[in-house]
Structures are given as structure tokens and as C-alpha cells.
Amino acid sequence: SIDGQRFWSSLLAMAEIGPTANGGSCRLALTEEDAAGRHLLIEWCEALGCTLRVDRVGNLFFRRAGRRDDLDPVACGSHLDTQPKGGRFDGILGVLAGLEVFRTLHDQGIVTERPLELIVWTNEEGSRFAPAMVASGTYAGEFSEAYTLAREDRDGVTLGESLEVTGFAGEMPVGEPCLASFFELHIEQGPVLEEEREAIGVVTGVQGMRWFDVTLRGQSAHAGPTPMAYRRDALAACARLIDRLQGHALADISGGTKVTFGCLEIDSPSRNVIPGEVRLTVDLRHVVETELDALEARFQRELAELAEGFGIETASERIWASPVVNFDAGCIDAVERATQAQGVAYRRMMSGAGHDAVYVSRVAPTSMIFIPCRDGISHNEAEYASPEHCALGAQVLFDAMLERASL
Amino acid sequence: SIDGQRFWSSLLAMAEIGPTANGGSCRLALTEEDAAGRHLLIEWCEALGCTLRVDRVGNLFFRRAGRRDDLDPVACGSHLDTQPKGGRFDGILGVLAGLEVFRTLHDQGIVTERPLELIVWTNEEGSRFAPAMVASGTYAGEFSEAYTLAREDRDGVTLGESLEVTGFAGEMPVGEPCLASFFELHIEQGPVLEEEREAIGVVTGVQGMRWFDVTLRGQSAHAGPTPMAYRRDALAACARLIDRLQGHALADISGGTKVTFGCLEIDSPSRNVIPGEVRLTVDLRHVVETELDALEARFQRELAELAEGFGIETASERIWASPVVNFDAGCIDAVERATQAQGVAYRRMMSGAGHDAVYVSRVAPTSMIFIPCRDGISHNEAEYASPEHCALGAQVLFDAMLERASL
Ligand SMILES: NC(=O)NCCC(=O)O
Ligand SMILES: NC(=O)NCCC(=O)O
């Protein structure tokens, strides 16, 4: 009953704002391009008779009136900002699917019992202002309004200043309105649905994540005259750590354990110098919190062993942790029923990545809907989801929202 | 019989040209500072009545006449150029020890049978103009004069232009004069002599070296939603390679095998992105050429196995190779006898690093003398050798040269 063609056209129209050389989008949070994207959405929503409220961190709330406007709304949404070389789907899909839900209801003259709300969360990507998901986090009480407004970009411009410049410094207190339910449609950003030929992921929660900065300090020395036995090679130690933890994660046949080393930097690298100091980032994830604890303990143990075995000093700092999230059973079931109604192959799954829904789930019944994306590629101009999968996702969102919006 | 105090003073005086913040020296090849260092030496040598000839790649040859000037000279030397944050001894030691030999002979009115030659090789370090040891290599026929003059620094200035600017573009054809013997005194640049409490290394040759640029190409993907089993992680593969080869080298109890990974770079690194491409430098060394062949074969085998095990593509390019060098038995023995005359602990050893003597040894009977340096540290402002060890090294050089300069 939603219009897949119209939905696809709106995705392409949004992608024309801040287009990149290789078919992606660049709309960094609260830049001119991001503002232009927001204005296009505002235009579209106003044509449907929705009312817009903007909170003090720039989150947009488009309300479609229901029969019982005294009740909390059923909401959906995601984000419109992108990575510097971002794709056309990450975030945008979930926002414009909400628009498509509103348009379909409008065409068919349907008025739901509960009001509906389409939400655009500010600065989800964290590319311009770190950390990521900061405005949905503020809404959910994880960050204070003052903290969020003071986030600075590379040039020292604050998030608060950018809200003023773009005209998105709203009046509504952050944390309003209360939501009866929240649904976020998103591309999977991984390869599982595509590989398993499944069309929908019914997302039951989000795995726990912990980020670490690690330093390994040995002694730099000339590669030629320094015998192996005398060396305190920080890179050799680092390689052992990576290989051990990688092997451990691969050995977990449940697939629950994930370890990633995204950045590795040698201090003053030179071809014929033994690395004296290496900095490494570690990203540990697990779907079970106690297993994540065990993974962190193992990582610390391996690190301590290196210090002995390689004659080096090690330091690690945990810079971020996001606990395992379990979404609301009622919202999950609503998504599953809506999926089953489409008669497509699907799976219940945990999200591997963080999303605005992580924070929102702390204050409102929440779940997510995933669709496959080509080769699992995301945060990349080549990001792609088929029109069929996009339409299917929007339809599931439509059905789940309508179920929850009735009394 | 050499004057250790005078020698030490000349080392300190040279260090005052291009001094660095932390007590080191910066005299990059053929800069103003390097030229000033050369002029100081010229002044000192002219005071001794030496004659200077300069070849077309700027190598300096100071000749002290002998009784039989029809015979080839006995030579010593090293380099005066330094790393950007170099020490006060690497290279300088060998040049100023030659000066001290000349001064001592001058004071004592000694005239040798063969003439003597003190040589300053241009651009040994390769910091400003790659490759290293290029001017001694040209002298020995490894590089053409045209190739060497065309070497460019970071700003596109050629070695040839810098010779003109500094006034060191000489007239003597490169390859002249023939040398009866060549001795190079140098700091060890490693920890062995210090650890073993030995005062002199009688250098019997130089280990073979091979340099490689390696690329590992997998697939970058989001750290969160990509299961371990689906990954093509270029860094995890790289870590396995490093750990395997490191283990192999450590297992060689002869100590002959050395492997070093000096540079490792991830393409577009990000904390929550699986590295898609990694570039690594590999430095393989061995004191036996056939063992170095076997080491290279093992490295290539490990690399091929990675490609399979990690689902990645690998490429490696051998960008430099320096075969094992065995110095001249007569020159080695002369150094050993001179060392024994001092009654100090010493060892016969292979040089771990390349030196100008590597190339010179192709065209003249050659050997080297090592003295300990503190903590084995070199290419570093903290580089240090004691006045006692410096004096001892100069004395051994003096005795070895005098032995070879008689008929
Ligand atoms: N979706 C997304 O990229 N979130 C950022 C946090 C994470 O790495 O999962
Ligand atoms: N002495 C020195 O640093 N030589 C450069 C070549 C090498 O790495 O051994």
C-alpha cells in the first residue's frame, strides 16, 4: 500500500543535495547541505499538513495528528546527515520511509488513533561533531544539553553556533515529546541478509561495544645492528596482540564475538628502524554483556603478557562503552508480524552498529527494521539498497506503526 | 700515541656546526651546514700540509704524501653528513679519526712509505638524497655519475645542483684514485659490544640486506555489522605475517636472521572500520647469502599463505638488495693485530648496517673498526660514545694504517 516508486524518487531527490563525485552524498551535520536537506523534508511534510517542532539540539519532530492527540505519539525516524563520502541510504532511508508512511496515509485519508511523529535526529554520524548519535543521546538523557551544544568541529565551530547559523536552534525542551513507540528503518550496513538471501532483519537489540586506545612502548633501534634477542619491538608485540585476539574471535563459532583494530600508528616510522612506539585502537563487541566483560578481560590479559614477553610497556584506556541493548518485545513483535504479512524470508538479529534507536530505547519502547545493502558496504559512496528492498522496508514500517497507533 | 683529548675536542668542534636542541647534529648532505663542516675539516687538513682533490660527486680526498708517491695510497674515511636529528659520532668519528692520524704523524714527523688518503664520502645517510651511500657507490661503479647527480631532495633540488651551490662540484673523475687499502672506523650502532663489555669490533664483513614494499588488499567494512567469518581484514593478515616472521627470526639461535617491519600504514584508517588495505615495509638481513635467499623464500611463502587464509590479495616488490660483503683478510688481520696490541677485549663481527665501506670493498681491500655506543642508540640526538672508546678506535686505525702503509 505504500508507493515504492515515490519513495525511491524521494531518496534520489534527497541525494541531489550535497552530491559527491562517485554517486554518494556529503551532508555533514548542520552544514548548508544538511540544512538544505532538512528544508526539502520540511516542504514535503508541510504539504501533508504536518506540524513541525524543533528542540534545542535541532532534532526535528513532524507530527501528524491522530484521533486521540492527548495520547503519546507512535514515532519513527533516523538521520539526514552523512559521512564526508557517505551513501544515499544510511539514515536517509529511515527518515524518508516515515515521509512515505505519512504520504500514504494522506492519500488514503487515514487518521490513526494515536498521533504519529517523524523524527530527524541531529548529527548522528559524529563526523563533524563527535561523538556520534549525540542529539538522540541528549533526548534520552545520556548527554546534557550544554555538553551537546558545546561540541566543536575541526574548525572550532560549536554545534550550538551551527544551529543558530542554519536556523535550527529550536525552542522545545530536549526530551519532549514522550513517545509511545519508536521504529527506525535502516540498511543493515553488513553482509548477512544479502548472503543469506533474506529481505528483512527484525532487529531485537544492539550488541555492546567498547572502544580502547592502546599504547605499546618499546625501544626504537637500528634494524641492522640490533640482534633479535635484544629488541623491544613495539610493532612485533602489537602484531602478536592482534593475531591472538583475531584468532580468539574467529574461534567463537556462535559469531557473537567481534574484534577490530581500525587504526595503527608507528611513532616516527622508518624502513630500517625497529618501531619504538605504536598506538592502536581496539573495538570489542559482543551481543551478551557478560561475554563482552570476558572479552575485555582476555584483551587485558593478552596485553599484560605482551609486556612481559616483549619487554615493552603497555597502556590502555577505555574511551567509550555502549552496553548491550535489548529492544522492546512489543515493538519487535509488531515488526515481525508486519514482516510475516509480506511473506518474505527474514531473520531476527542484533544490530552490529550503533544507531539513534540505541539511546531512544532507554526512554521509549523501540525496535528497528533492517534491509540488505549491496556487499554489506556502508559509509561509502558505493552504498546501495535496491528499490524493492527499500519499498519492503517502508511497508513493514507502515504496518508496524499502524498496529501500534491503534488502541 | 694518538692524542685522545685532541680527537675528542675535534669531535665536539664539528658538533657545533648544525647543533640540534637535544645535543645532536643536523648537517644534511650538501646543505650550508654540511658545507661548513667540510670547510672546517679542509682548514684543519691544510694546516697539516695535505692536498685536497674533489671528485665529480663531491667526495673529498685529502692526501698526505709518502716516500713512494708512485704507489697507491692507504686510505681511511667515512662521512660528515647526518640524519635530520642525528648524533655527533655516526660518520664523523671515522673522518676525524683520520684527521687525528694525520695530526699525530705530523707532530712526530713521520713519513710513511705509501701516501695516505683521508676520504669524506658525500651523502652517506640518504636522508636528503636517496639512496644512502650513493657517492661511495658511484666511486665503486655501482651507480653512474649521471644517476647520482640527478638524485633529488624533497624540494626537487638535485645533488648536482647542490654540489654547484656549495662549491663541491670537483673535477677529478669519479673512481680515482685507486686505493691500496681502505679502513672505516664507525660506532657499532647496536648493543652487542656494550653488552659484552668489549671495546673493539674487528669487522669481517657486512650482512646482506633486502628491502621490500608489501601491499595487502582486503575489503574495508564496518566493524560492527560484519561477522568475523565474512571479513577480509588486511591488518589482521599483516599481523599474522609479522608474528610468523618474527617468531622464525627469534628461533634462529645463531642470531644470523634479522627481520624488521619499520613502516605500516592503513589506508583511510578509522576506529570502527575493518582495514581494507595495508602497506608494510620489510627489511630482511642475514650474514650468509644462501640463508638470506631461504629467508626471502620463507617470507614469500608466508605471504602467499596469508592470501589464501585471509581472502586478501598481496603484492611485494623488492626495492633494494645488498649482498653479503666479506672484507679483505689482510685488512681484517691488520685491524685485529692493532687491536690485540691494545690489550682490550674485542670480537670479530659482521656489521649489521650498511656503510660506505660496503661499496669501497668492491674495488679496494677494505675492513672496518667498530667501537661501542651507549645503549646501541644511533640515528638519534642521544647517540654517544665515550672519549676512551673514541681514542681507542683512532689508535687501532692509526696502527692498522701504518702497518699497511709500509712496504
Ligand atoms: N551506524 C554507525 O556507524 N554507528 C557508529 C557506532 C558504531 O561503530 O557502531
Ligand atoms: N649505517 C646505516 O644506517 N646504513 C643504512 C643502511 C642500513 O639500513 O644498514
Automatic annotation (TrEMBL), chains A, B:
The keyword Metal-binding applies. InterPro entries: Amidase_Cbmase (IPR010158), Bact_exopeptidase_dim_dom (IPR036264), Peptidase_M20 (IPR002933), Peptidase_M20_dimer (IPR011650). Zn(2+) 1 binds at residues 79, 90, 186. Keywords: Hydrolase, Metal-binding, Zinc. Pfam families: M20_dimer, Peptidase_M20. GO terms for molecular function: hydrolase activity, acting on carbon-nitrogen (but not peptide) bonds, in linear amidines; metal ion binding. Its cofactor is Zn(2+). Binds 2 Zn(2+) ions per subunit. Zn(2+) 2 binds at residues 90, 125, 379. CDD domains: M20_bAS (cd03884). It comes from the Bacteria. Signal peptide: none annotated. Residues 205-307 form the Peptidase M20 dimerisation domain. Belongs to the peptidase M20 family. PANTHER family: ALLANTOATE AMIDOHYDROLASE (PTHR32494:SF5), ALLANTOATE DEIMINASE-RELATED (PTHR32494). This is Zn-dependent hydrolase. It comes from Halomonas urumqiensis.
